[in-house]
Amino acid sequence: EIVLTQSPATLSLSPGERATLSCRASQSVSSYLAWYQQKPGQAPRLLIYDASNRATGIPARFSGSGSGTDFTLTISSLEPEDFAVYYCQQRSNWPPGTFGQGTKLEIK
Amino acid sequence: EVQLVESGGGLVQPGGSLRLSCAASGFTFSSYAMSWVRQAPGKGLEWVSAISGSGGSTYYADSVKGRFTISRDNSKNTLYLQMNSLRAEDTAVYYCAKDRGDTAMVTYYMDVWGKGTTVTVSS
């Protein structure tokens, strides 16, 4: 069974800074990885799919990279509305749709 | 506007049953696969089940296989999740989500989500 491990668990940064979030898979998922953002009390929002493709309406400051087992979500310059929990998700291996445990991005 | 509205959540005793519904609007429902994803209180996201656009293919997480049944009525633009033999660990907010793929096949990437409905399993 595949496991996605996100790091760090919590990231404390200030608006305007660059955020780098990591997701590591226990086995290769090729490029079949997505990133979601979730704010308190809200449903998740799809940001990136297939490792590097921005979903519709997602600002260009969000970018994804990686393949195989190591993936990165980068937010180039943090806006106040970007502070949230971020999840990676894979669709390559069983069980499909597996999510990582999340990274909380908080204001420093 | 693309919209998903879940309903049917509530308090149920262990071993009981519940049926969740998700009313879809603003898109051609039958053209898209759909999923259910849950989130236990204070925890992360867990994919639960998915169904193709036609309803002919269904998929389940091991944690719910044999207890939950996903289905859809394309004439009513509605997705369902029948939950039987409920356990305390099924307590969560259940989200209905639209698959982003436009081939009616399941991609497991979800681009539109409802606000969720809360299921509490407790005696």
TrEMBL record, chain A:
<keyword id="KW-1280">Immunoglobulin</keyword>
<dbReference type="GO" id="GO:0005576">
    <property type="term" value="C:extracellular region"/>
</dbReference>
<dbReference type="GO" id="GO:0019814">
    <property type="term" value="C:immunoglobulin complex"/>
</dbReference>
<dbReference type="Pfam" id="PF07686">
    <property type="entry name" value="V-set"/>
</dbReference>
<keyword id="KW-0393">Immunoglobulin domain</keyword>
<feature type="domain" description="Ig-like">
    <location>
        <begin position="1"/>
        <end position="89"/>
    </location>
</feature>
<dbReference type="InterPro" id="IPR013106">
    <property type="entry name" value="Ig_V-set"/>
</dbReference>
<dbReference type="InterPro" id="IPR013783">
    <property type="entry name" value="Ig-like_fold"/>
</dbReference>
<comment type="subunit">
    <text>Immunoglobulins are composed of two identical heavy chains and two identical light chains; disulfide-linked.</text>
</comment>
<keyword id="KW-1064">Adaptive immunity</keyword>
<dbReference type="GO" id="GO:0005886">
    <property type="term" value="C:plasma membrane"/>
</dbReference>
<dbReference type="InterPro" id="IPR007110">
    <property type="entry name" value="Ig-like_dom"/>
</dbReference>
<protein>
    <submittedName>
        <fullName>IG c94_light_IGKV3-11_IGKJ2</fullName>
    </submittedName>
</protein>
<dbReference type="InterPro" id="IPR050150">
    <property type="entry name" value="IgV_Light_Chain"/>
</dbReference>
<keyword id="KW-0391">Immunity</keyword>
<dbReference type="GO" id="GO:0002250">
    <property type="term" value="P:adaptive immune response"/>
</dbReference>
<dbReference type="InterPro" id="IPR003599">
    <property type="entry name" value="Ig_sub"/>
</dbReference>
<dbReference type="InterPro" id="IPR036179">
    <property type="entry name" value="Ig-like_dom_sf"/>
</dbReference>
